[in-house]
Design goal:
The chain is of the alpha+beta class. The protein starts with 17 loop residues before the first helix and ends in a 5-residue tail after the last helix.
């Protein structure tokens, strides 16, 4: 070391990784270990009070230090890290982290979760034997990406182990060019050429171009969707994983020739982050890439193939649940969502599709009227229980056409579009500047209109009509009056939250105060300098004092566990009674249920358990149970009714069964 620089320095080679560069600097300076340069940089950084990952630095101070030590610019050093692939790898709906490199500006960083998913481990290095030939071996940065399984320049697969001894190799081994175990030069490693499959190789060349790698004969595929490369990159890798998980293709169909039985061995990926062998990955990625060529024809062929491969029909597995309905649900993937919906709509009722009328009239193809329940569930992103609830409520109407149950396609599409325009509970809270509990109470009071929700259609999350949220805000704020604090005594005003605390004994919540303001029953004011929004509303103490006595007591609710404790039963029994219709909660939040206190009071007055029935009738407990079995008593719940103990009898029923 000389001052703050390495004594011997060299330039970064094209596409060289930062780890490889630091190893070469250690050798060039005759340090004892190949890790010495990295350790020196780590120690210097620690002395300045910073810690960082030298393989994928995230701090600007790290790049400043490395520039001092190597005399290589920060921009070049950044290009030697896997972060250079961030904008190509990170999905468009995710915002990557960034680092400010001064004169270079802000540069994207791979989030830590993506590092684990997309970047190979240090001791699991990949390499091209033909690239290592020559006077100076080094490890390429592009070899660090798991998605890169082929060297397009030489038309061969990347290798991950020594062909002589079978040992896994580290980045140090690749940079030195020899196997650490048997000392065989890696440039003499066995080479697996794929030049006999030029179409697949051209597909990989296109994906390399998406990553910003050198162009060694990029393909010019026909019919790719006209969207950003990073969108296509994520679609290809989602399709690759889905194809592997669904076991749709056999090894022979993909072109994998390794002597494994074709009948019993379909290609399968057990986990999204699985380290798939490069020969399998080469063919899987090519199959996935093929699905987006000649768009959307080949994509729909894949959907049909996956549908046929499922025993239950329309079993698209993780392709639908994890990708189409989840990760690809943003506007960046609208091109794919539209084609998927079009494919679903084409799943006409089989009995209609077989008729000569359908086959002969093209307008029936263009204006499809009906859709089967299963495709409708896919279009609406619903599970069967929620779908059944919507049918029971009349939101969806099942028809019978030619002996098959179906729905009108226009009704399903209209409902999907309505849900698509709705906003989430979190977005509602941000617009109104209120808490989630207040927003939910506003829904219960009818101030905001839901389109989906736990108490609306059984959905796990709320979706709310955006227009009703805007109207609610306008009505509440429009009822307030501007006033200046200069003419008012200090301490007169209360915020909405403070007003609710003052009126706790009257069960006046923030939502009920807002309802009273909207209806003109409680005056509210704008105070200069406090902002124009719900958070800026103020209520005069004297107005609140006048309003509280006139406020009608609100119904109080009781949670499920308190109902169970009062009745002396388990909470699960209460849930069973709700399912059977014996009890009706006033609201549900996930698994939580709330009941009106007056309803529970009436329920307790009108129903008795076995022991109390025996006392009233003057008979034994076993006799009560016998009467229930032979029909002399008519229990509303219990082993003979819903198979859930204890036996519950209506007081009217027990009275009619008194012994003569």
């Amino acid at each position: 070391m000389s001052g703050t620089r390495f004594l011997a320095r060299t330039a970064l080679t094209a596409d060289e990784s930062l780890e490889s560069y630091l190893i070469r600097l250690s050798l060039l300076n005759s340090y004892q270990s190949t890790n010495s340069a990295r350790l020196i940089a780590t120690a210097r950084l620690g002395a300045r009070g910073w810690t960082d990952n030298m393989r994928a630095p995230r701090l600007p101070e790290t790049y400043d230090l490395l520039e001092e030590l190597t005399c290589v610019s920060r921009k070049q050093l950044y290009g030697a890290t896997v972060h250079r692939f961030a904008l190509a790898i990170v999905p468009p709906h995710d915002t990557p982290d960034s680092v400010d490199l001064a004169d270079t500006g802000r540069m994207a960083l791979l989030p830590n979760a993506h590092l684990t998913k997309w970047v190979r481990a240090y001791d699991d290095a990949a390499f091209c034997p033909l690239c290592l030939e020559g006077s100076q071996a080094y490890h390429k940065n592009s070899w660090s990406i798991r998605a890169n399984c082929v060297c397009v320049k030489h038309g061969c697969l990347l290798e991950t182990c020594c062909s002589e001894c079978g040992s896994s190799l580290s980045i140090t081994d690749v940079t030195l060019g020899v196997c650490h175990k048997c000392s065989k030069p890696l440039s003499r490693n066995a080479v697996r050429h794929v030049t006999e499959e030029p179409q697949k190789l051209a597909m990989h060349a296109t994906m390399h171009a998406w990553l910003g790698l050198p162009d060694y004969g990029k393909a010019d595929p026909l019919g790719l969707p006209d969207v950003l490369p990073r969108v296509l990159f994520n679609v290809v890798h989602g399709l690759k994983w889905s194809i592997g998980r669904s076991r749709t293709y056999t090894r022979k169909e993909l072109g994998i020739v390794d002597g494994v039985s074709d009948e019993t061995n379909r290609v399968a990926i057990s986990d999204e982050g699985a380290n798939v062998a490069n020969d399998v990955l080469f063919h899987l990625l090519a199959a996935a890439f093929h699905c987006i060529t000649d768009w959307p024809y080949n994509f729909k062929i894949l959907l049909n193939r996956m549908e046929r491969a499922s025993e239950r029909g329309l079993g698209l597995g993780t392709l639908y649940t994890q990708w189409i309905a989840d990760r690809w649900s943003t506007s960046d993937y609208a091109f794919l969502q539209n084609e998927f919906d079009d494919w679903l709509a084409a799943k006409v009722i089989p009995s209609i599709a077989r008729t000569s009328r359908y086959k002969s009239r093209s307008q029936m193809h263009e204006n499809r009227l009906y859709v089967l329940p299963t495709p409708a569930m896919y279009m609406l992103r619903l599970g069967k229980p929620t779908f059944d609830q919507l049918v029971a409520k009349g939101t969806l109407i099942l028809l019978e056409v030619n002996g098959e149950r179906c729905l009108r396609l226009d009704e399903v599409t209209a409902l999907r579009d309505k849900w698509g325009k709705a906003i989430t509970l979190q977005q509602t809270c941000e617009r109104l500047r209120v808490s989630k509990s207040t927003a939910i109470n506003m829904i219960r009071l009818g101030m905001i209109q839901p389109v989906r929700g736990p108490t609306f259609d059984g959905a796990s999350e709320w979706l709310l009509d955006a227009a009703s949220v805007r109207l609610c805000l306008m009505n509440v704020l429009g009822a307030a009056h501007p006033v200046s604090t200069a003419d008012e005594p200090e301490g007169r005003w209360l915020t909405i939250g403070k007003a609710a605390q003052h009126a706790t004994s009257s069960n006046l919540t923030i939502s009920r105060l807002l309802l009273a303001i909207r209806d003109g029953r409680l005056p509210a004011y704008w105070i200069d300098g406090h902002g124009k929004g719900i958070h800026g509303l103020r209520i005069a103490k004297r107005d609140l004092a006048r309003f509280v006595p006139s406020f009608e007591p609100v119904r109080t609710v009781t949670p499920r566990h308190e109902v169970a404790a009062r009745l002396g039963i388990k909470a699960t029994v209460v849930s069973k009674w709700v399912t059977s219709g014996l009890l009706a909660p006033v609201c549900m939040e996930g698994n939580a249920m709330y009941f009106e206190k007056a309803q529970i009071d009436r329920f307790v007055a009108d129903h008795i358990f076995t022991e109390e029935a025996a006392t009233i009738l003057g008979i034994g407990v076993l006799a009560v149970q016998k009467w229930a079995r032979n029909g002399r008593l008519h229990p509303v719940a219990g082993p003979g009714v819903d198979r859930v103990p204890p036996l519950l009898v209506s007081t009217r029923g027990s009275g009619s069964a008194r012994p003569e």
